[in-house]
């Protein structure tokens, strides 16, 4: 299956001895110039007879990179502070799933940051300008850019290291800045940037046109009615609906995501809620975050505002998507606000788990928990929900609310071991714009800590399924956990569990 | 890297997907499969042909669920599931089968 070593699962966490250079060969495909330009970046292509064209740094790249770094230092105070404040205490070194899985010391968060920090020092500090060797400052060369390109695409911006940093240095911000600088000199990443291009031209990450979306939704209505004889609706562009649901386009396409979508629709049906999806905002995800581009993040967010206005909705609810929830919960008002035209009695935006839990607590859903008795479930905290957002109206709601939903629909639930959950959760290994086949080796190695914790929960507590509320996590797990002996169907959407347990009025179950 | 099919050259991207989708001809699939040590059976062709029909109408590959349902109808209910599709296309029906069928790769969080 793989031409590299798949790490071994261990019962206890093991901090590996560093092995230099194990991952320096790995870097993702570079974005074509036309996709760069769609995002207001630049690109340069060199055609080669009979071979793939090469995408190279643009003319004047050196000065442009330094200029961009200066611009970002001025715009983002955090970035400036993070460049100056590291004291090399080492607290972060063993916290990164990519270091644990790859053993490459440049994947220690401090070392990865220093790839950028050393250049910052050379051009922006007094000591670095005049005594570079004394302070570990170095010139920006093409080799350095290549090193950045490799290792800043070996960080999933999960921010686990930041939890343990005594100075609160946010590694994700450093990675984002590095990617933004590289995108400005012709070194954007293909996966992220082509996807953002699709959001602008077609409306979502998948490139799912409106006609295909309508076809999928009609198919789901038929399937659900066929299964349980209840006409559950999946409305699209319904003007005057109360709720606009924005959800990752993976929910229209992939498994187990689509089972989660069916769960949302059943909850709305059961509670007589008027809701709609939007073909304009048929994507909650916002990859502008991953590449550190405020401008692109804003442009993507504006689609949601426009859709809400056009459809005349009163509320916005987000489906199961990790980083979309971060952008929604933490930045939406700044990026696309004010949302004074929405009903202020509800959170703007609201998470689908909040919505469902409220209905469960009010007793508006008819639930038979025993329908999930074939499972013992655990929950994977997705990093952008756990560490970068909240949920509900109190601190820590982002941990409790999804678990409360699961516990309301399942009899058998156990957490994975402490230190791998809540704000210390391990990344799935594919977040932050790395969910691409050209980084498969990294994804297989980076899942190690999460796979180990899951394996322990399986062996000690009989866990059979792991639920998640992030499209990336679900795709990464279904694709990569099989390398460790798990099966794809062990990964479930939280609302898939809701969907299994809920009994709608008039429901007739199929006879097996 | 271009691939050679029946003496003609077809341009592909870094991951082996056809660049010009309109150029596809059935032997492209055979050649791509051979490069991955796969032989295409009739059942593979059912999937490939369905993908192409769906793409013609909707400009995207079908969702996994839509594909499994269609294949179940054509090849029998026991084959209408993702497990069977993964047996046919071990690298994933969404991606490997799309490549053989000359469709663009589905992107995003999938």
What do these coordinates show?
The complex is a heterodimer of chains A (512) and B (110). Chain A is mainly alpha-helical. Chain A folds into two domains: 33-188, Fumarate Reductase Iron-sulfur Protein, Chain B, domain 2 (Orthogonal Bundle), CATH 1.10.1060; 196-414 and 463-501, no CATH class. Chain A contains 21 helices and nine strands. In chain A, strand 3 (243-246), helix 12 (257-270) and strand 4 form a beta-alpha-beta unit. In chain A, helix 2 (61-75) runs antiparallel to helix 9 and helix 3 (77-85) crosses helix 9. The two termini of chain A are 36 Å apart. The mean pLDDT of chain A is 96. Chain B is mostly helical and 110 residues long. Chain B has a single domain, classed as Arc Repressor Mutant, subunit A, CATH 1.10.10. Chain B is built from five helices and two strands. Chain B has helices spanning 26-35, 42-58, 64-75, 82-88, 93-100, and strands spanning 3-5, 8-10. In chain B, helix 2 (42-58) packs across helix 3. In chain B, 33% of the residues are buried. The chains are: A mainly alpha (512), B mainly alpha (110). The interface between A and B is medium-sized, with 43 and 24 residues.
Q: Termini of chain A, distance in Å?
A: 36 Å
Based on DSSP secondary structure assignment, what is the total number of beta strands of chain A?
A: 9
Q: How confident is the prediction overall: mean pLDDT of chain A? A: 96
Estimated share of beta-strand residues of chain B? 5-15%
Question: How many helix segments of chain B?
Answer: 5
Radius of gyration of chain B in whole Å, from Cα? 13 Å
CATH architecture identity of chain B:
Orthogonal Bundle
With strands numbered from the N-terminus, the spatial order across the biggest sheet of chain B is 1-2
Main beta-sheet annotation of chain B: 2 strands, antiparallel
Shape of chain B: globular
Strand order of the largest sheet of chain A: 4-3-5-6
What quaternary form is this? heterodimer
Mean pLDDT of chain B: 92
Greatest interface (CB-CB under 8 A), with counts per chain: A-B, 43 and 24 residues
Q: Pick out the low-confidence regions of chain A.
A: none
Q: What's the main sheet of chain A like?
A: 4 strands, parallel
Straight-line N-to-C gap of chain B: 25 Å
Q: Write down the CATH class of chain B.
A: Mainly Alpha
């Amino acid at each position: 299956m793989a031409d590299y070593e798949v790490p071994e699962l261990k019962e206890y966490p093991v901090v590996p001895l560093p092995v230099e250079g194990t991952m320096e060969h790995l870097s993702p495909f570079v974005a074509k110039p036309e996709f760069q330009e769609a995002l207001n970046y630049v690109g340069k292509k060199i055609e080669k007879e009979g071979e793939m064209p090469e995408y190279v740094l643009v003319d004047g790249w050196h000065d442009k990179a330094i200029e961009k770094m200066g611009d970002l230092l001025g715009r983002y105070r955090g970035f400036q502070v993070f460049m100056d404040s590291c004291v090399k205490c080492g607290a972060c070194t063993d916290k990164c799933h990519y270091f644990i899985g790859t053993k490459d010391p440049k994947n220690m968060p401090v070392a990865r940051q220093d790839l950028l920090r050393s250049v910052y020092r050379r051009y922006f500090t007094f000591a670095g300008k005049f005594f570079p060797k004394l302070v570990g400052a170095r010139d920006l060369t093409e080799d350095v850019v290549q090193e950045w390109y490799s290792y800043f695409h070996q960080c999933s911006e999960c921010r686990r290291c930041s939890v343990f940093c005594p100075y609160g240095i946010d590694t994700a911000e450093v990675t984002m800045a590095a990617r933004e600088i590289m995108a400005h000199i012709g070194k954007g990443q293909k996966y992220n940037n082509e996807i953002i291009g699709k959001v602008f031209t077609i409306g979502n990450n998948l490139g799912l046109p409106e006609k295909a979306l309508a076809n999928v939704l009609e198919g789901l209505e038929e399937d659900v009615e066929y299964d349980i004889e209840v006409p559950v609706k999946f409305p699209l562009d319904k003007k005057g609906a109360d709720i606009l649901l924005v959800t990752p386009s993976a929910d229209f396409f992939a498994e187990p995501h689509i089972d989660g979508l069916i769960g949302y629709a059943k909850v709305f049906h059961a509670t007589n809620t008027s809701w709609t999806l939007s073909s304009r905002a048929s994507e909650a995800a916002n990859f502008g975050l991953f590449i550190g581009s405020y401008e692109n993040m804003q442009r993507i967010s504006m689609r949601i505002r426009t859709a809400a206005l056009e459809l005349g909705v009163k509320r916005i609810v987000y489906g199961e998507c990790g980083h979309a929830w971060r952008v929604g919960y933490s930045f939406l008002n700044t990026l696309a606000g004010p949302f004074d035209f929405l009903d202020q009695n509800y959170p703007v935006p609201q998470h689908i788990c909040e919505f469902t839990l409220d209905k469960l607590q009010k007793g508006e859903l008819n639930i038979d928990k025993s329908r999930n008795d074939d499972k013992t479930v655990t929950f994977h905290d997705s990093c952008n929900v756990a560490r970068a957002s909240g949920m509900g109206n109190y601190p820590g709601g982002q941990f409790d609310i999804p678990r409360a939903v699961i516990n309301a629909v399942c009899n058998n639930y156990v957490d994975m071991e402490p230190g791998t959950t809540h704000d210390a959760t391990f990344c799935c290994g594919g977040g932050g714009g790395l969910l691409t086949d050209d980084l498969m080796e990294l994804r297989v190695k980076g899942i190690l800590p999460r796979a180990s914790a899951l394996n322990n929960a399986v062996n000690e507590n009989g866990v059979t399924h792991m639920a998640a509320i992030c499209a990336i996590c679900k795709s990464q797990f279904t694709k990569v956990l099989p390398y460790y002996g798990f099966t794809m169907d062990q990964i479930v959407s939280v609302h898939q569990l809701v969907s299994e347990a809920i009994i709608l009025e008039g429901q007739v179950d199929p006879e097996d | 890297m271009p691939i050679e099919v029946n003496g003609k050259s077809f341009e592909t991207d870094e991951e082996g997907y056809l660049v010009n989708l309109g150029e596809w001809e059935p032997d492209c699939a055979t050649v791509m499969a051979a490069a991955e040590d796969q032989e295409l059976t009739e059942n593979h062709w059912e999937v490939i042909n369905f993908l192409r029909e769906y793409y013609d109408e909707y400009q995207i590959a079908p969702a996994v669920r839509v594909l499994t349902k269609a294949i179940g109808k054509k090849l029998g209910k026991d084959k209408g599931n993702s497990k069977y599709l993964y047996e046919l296309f071990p690298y994933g029906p969404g991606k490997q089968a799309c490549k053989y069928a000359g469709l663009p790769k589905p992107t995003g969080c999938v």
